[in-house]
């Protein structure tokens, strides 16, 4: 068992396990229709020294899995160094990427491997190159993605297709997953569309104007595909069922969200939030203490990563989720 997996298990068993997303910059190459962060001015890049301190502060709070995001995290000149600091603290890491061409420049994939990065998670909304190029506004994105996935295969880093359910794919997930599989991705993750209240992390837009019924239909198809076992979809079945319950009637969602207690979001100003959804920060990461990280369970939205990770923090009800995670742990860890 590798040291990061041992660290996750130890922290989970002792009740210290937490997860965080950390946005290193609001700069981005893509111009997605369901996100307007790329429009923000001025462009902000986290200070290198403070970012290294932030990783350590989060590690001290028990964070054992971290997603580095942006904007585009790879546009930060010290991204690999910041990931390396996370690895030094035995934090399992994923870097989220919208422009896969960045993995091919400046020996980036090798540098991430040397930094101990575990997963590169690349946005993959469609198997159709024209649709991908249009939705992300990046020419040749599929050609670059193919090369980036091949490059990741030459390293120890796992590649994950990060599929957002949107207007153009909600009724053809099988096709999208199959395209991701054929491209060579090791894993697939599914993101549930949402409109955030956050002024810093603005999510929403014309690309995700799905009805609840369409989203439910899409999640049900994802559950059926997961059961077939053809694709390595990391979202747990109980979590997707929980989101379906939430969409039908929020009061029927059995598992509530632990944003602000067990899962967090840190933005490029080092403000710590319960999640990317809510507008109000808990406080600055360097000023908050353990007593501030006690937000009550929340059931206000269907945001994927926060709801999916929170499934592990629901007492005895988390047992089926833990069981599924243990069965598939070799895929993602
Ligand atoms: S349910 Fe939504 S709004 Fe509430 S903490 Fe979780 S992600 Fe944030």
Overview of this structure, please?
The protein has 333 residues and is an alpha/beta fold. The protein has one domain: TIM Barrel (Alpha-Beta Barrel), CATH 3.20.20.70. Strand 3, helix 4 and strand 4 form a beta-alpha-beta unit. Helix 3 runs parallel beside helix 4 and helix 8 runs antiparallel to helix 9. The longest helix has 17 residues. The structure holds iron/sulfur cluster. Iron/sulfur cluster (SF4) binds next to loops.
List its salient traits.
single chain, 333 residues, alpha/beta, nine-stranded mixed beta sheet, 12 helices, 9 strands, 14% strand, binds iron/sulfur cluster
Largest sheet: 9 strands, mixed
**What would you call the shape?**
globular
Distance between the termini: 10 Å
Q: In CATH terms, what is the architecture?
A: Alpha-Beta Barrel
User: What structural category do the secondary elements indicate?
Assistant: alpha/beta
Along the chain, the helix and strand elements come as: HEHEHEHEHHEHEHHEEEHHH
Low-confidence stretches: none
Proportion in helices: 25-40%
What is the gist of this entry?
This protein has 333 residues and is α/β, with parallel strands linked by helices.
Question: What's the helix and strand layout?
Answer:
Blueprint: H1 3-13, E1 18-23, H2 48-60, E2 63-69, H3 79-88, E3 92-97, H4 108-114, E4 119-123, H5 129-136, H6 141-153, E5 158-164, H7 173-183, E6 187-191, H8 212-228, H9 237-248, E7 263-266, E8 271-273, E9 283-284, H10 304-310, H11 319-327, H12 329-332
Parallel strand pairs: 1-2, 1-7, 2-3, 3-4, 4-5, 5-6
Antiparallel strand pairs: 7-8, 8-9
Helix pairs in contact: 2-3, 3-4, 8-9
The structure holds iron/sulfur cluster (SF4).
Iron/sulfur cluster (SF4) binds at residues 257, 259, 274-275, 277-278, 298-301, 303, 306.
């Amino acid at each position: 068992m590798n040291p990061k997996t041992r660290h996750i298990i130890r922290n989970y068993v002792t009740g210290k396990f937490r997860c965080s997303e950390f946005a290193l910059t609001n700069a981005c190459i893509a111009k997605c229709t369901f996100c307007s962060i790329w429009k923000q001015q001025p462009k902000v890049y986290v200070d290198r020294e403070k970012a290294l301190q932030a990783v350590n502060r989060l590690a001290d709070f028990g964070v054992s899995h971290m997603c580095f995001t942006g904007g585009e995290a790879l546009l930060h000149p010290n991204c690999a160094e910041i990931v390396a600091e996370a690895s030094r603290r035995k934090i399992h890491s994923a870097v989220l990427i919208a422009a896969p061409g960045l993995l091919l420049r400046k020996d980036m994939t090798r540098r991430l491997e040397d930094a101990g990065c575990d997963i590169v998670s690349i946005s993959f909304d469609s198997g159709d190159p024209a649709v991908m190029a249009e939705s992300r506004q990046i020419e040749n994105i599929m050609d670059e993605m193919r090369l980036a996935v091949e490059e990741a295969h030459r390293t120890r880093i796992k590649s994950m297709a990060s599929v957002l359910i949107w207007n153009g794919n909600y009724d053809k997930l099988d096709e999208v997953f199959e395209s991701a599989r054929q491209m060579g991705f090791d894993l697939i993750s599914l993101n549930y569309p949402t409109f955030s209240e956050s002024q810093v992390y603005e999510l929403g837009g014309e690309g995700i104007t799905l009805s609840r019924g369409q989203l439910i239909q899409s999640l049900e198809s994802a559950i059926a595909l997961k059961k077939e076992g053809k694709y390595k979809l990391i979202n747990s079945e109980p979590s997707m069922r929980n989101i379906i319950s939430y969409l039908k009637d929020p009061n029927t969602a059995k598992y509530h969200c632990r944003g602000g207690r067990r899962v967090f979001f840190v933005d490029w100003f080092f403000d710590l939030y319960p999640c990317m959804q809510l507008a109000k920060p808990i406080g600055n990461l360097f000023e908050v203490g353990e007593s501030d990280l006690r937000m009550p369970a929340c059931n206000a939205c269907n945001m994927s990563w926060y709801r999916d990770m929170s499934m592990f923090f629901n007492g005895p009800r988390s047992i089926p989720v833990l069981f599924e995670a243990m069965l598939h742990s070799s895929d993602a860890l």
